[in-house]
Amino acid sequence: MGVRLYVEVKKREIGFGMYPLCIDTIDKDVVDIENFDVSTGSIVCVEGAEQDTLSSQLAPKLHNHKRIHTPNDVIEDIRALYGIDISYKKVWRAKERTLEIIRGKSANGYRQLPKYLYMLELVYPNSYIRMHKSEENKFMYLFISLRPLMRGFDYCRPIVVVDGAHLGGSYKGTFVSASTLDGAVLQNHTNEVFIGGSIPGHVVINRDREAADDNLFRDYFSATPRFNDAIFRRRYRMSRNLFLRIVDAIKDHDTYFEQRIDALGRFGLSTLQKITAVFRMLAYGLPADATDEYMKIGESTTIESMKRFCRAIVEVFGERYLRSPTPNDVARLLHIGEQRGFPGMLGSLDCMHWKWKNCPTAWAGQYAGRSGSPTIILEAVADYDLWIWHAYFGLPGTNNDINDLESSHLFSNLASGIAPPAHYVIQGKEYDMGYYLADGIYPKWSTIVQTIRDPHSQQKKYFAMKQESCRKDVERAFGVLQSRFAIIAGPSRFWRKEVLHDIMTTCIILHNMIIEDERDLNAPIQDAIEAPTPTIEMVVDENLRFEQFLARHKKIKDKNAHFELRNALIEHLWEQRNNFEN
How many C-beta neighbours within 10 Å does residue 210 have? Predict the structure, then answer.
């Protein structure tokens, strides 16, 4: 028959009585508990068919607060010891009652708070400890900020994370905490350096960075380097003079790249070590810790150098090497386009995708396109010598080229009326807007010239061949860009989208700098054409300005003008071919 077990707690204090464990059995006779030892948690059973002595497995295990003893564990223990099955609900009640016997009621804990706070104030003087009570003298909340912890925030990074956790059981309420990341050496607004001390668990490796710096200097930067200019060009992707020019500019812009002396009087990492490690990651796509073997620079320092270097490149060289075409640039591009058979051409337009390996899971669906992997789109315009005139990076990979074109700023200056003039003549007709060569997915605008998908006549076949030949400029630019900087050819291992934007922009800037440094100025196709600086008069009337903007915007997207321009180019190229044959 069913049995209910009881715990009788016998102590010297008067007032203790029976406490039910609420355990029902199915095949045992009625038993009573004779004794319950609070110090050990043992339960002694002496009543029943035969007097028997048992040792309960519940209370001793609950004495150890570091061990989690679940109700399921109790059910298994009771089944193993007594051969009976009990419900989960009854075991849970028994566990709660046993914990109350061992530790007391939760309400008693609040009565001990004043003593606890008094001891904290004695041990940690000048701490901020406040307990708030209601008008009825009921506890509301407690705030504790110990002085050592307050002082520790001075040596941490200036980012504080505040979070809360809901307390279960009898206490309820919310536990709120503020935490931050430790920093070994930080600088405040007065440029005073604070030493945060050792990081627990941090392993110090004697890398002998001074010897690595000397070896690097002898290999590439001494008066008689071990490796010649050709090997330097292959490993740094640029000439030695251009690299040193970049090093000097970055060092002057960001003091992080200056070589310093530590507290022991040892020289820290040199400028060449940090920037060379960055170039190894950019050029070869190496992980950060792979640079440690030769550069003797840690993984976290390499990552920090990468982020700072890319940001400095964008800030120092971005204005010049990511500029929109100036009037002289437009005149030169128009002259080159005319020599190639496309008067008015300013370059070719296309997009590429960069795989984002560490894309956050919550964003994966937004960035995963037809490839199935998260990617970020780069829209670019390149000319015949692979100079990238326009770069728009950051749109998720689920978008296509049309979406990217609509959200980019490619035609913003043209629509605003501040773009340099682009005057040219085709078949006796004058035009005042340049155009870009693109593939078939792009819209039929007056500023975009597409190929013919299925040409039938000889004129259209010849036009399609010439258009697809010149349009490969941007494809070649993407190929050279990924060949020079393998970091954007493979999947990105960085987490933040801002860092990816800086890396992509840095690679494009360095690519243009290499193009400028190695450009063959004697090539006949690069004849410079000077153009007068345009004088732009801004209309004062806002309504008139808005109407002009709408007119220019409509003119850019004119579908009829697109076909008229393409037909004129077809006739122009065919005449040019006949004249060449004659």
Answer: 14
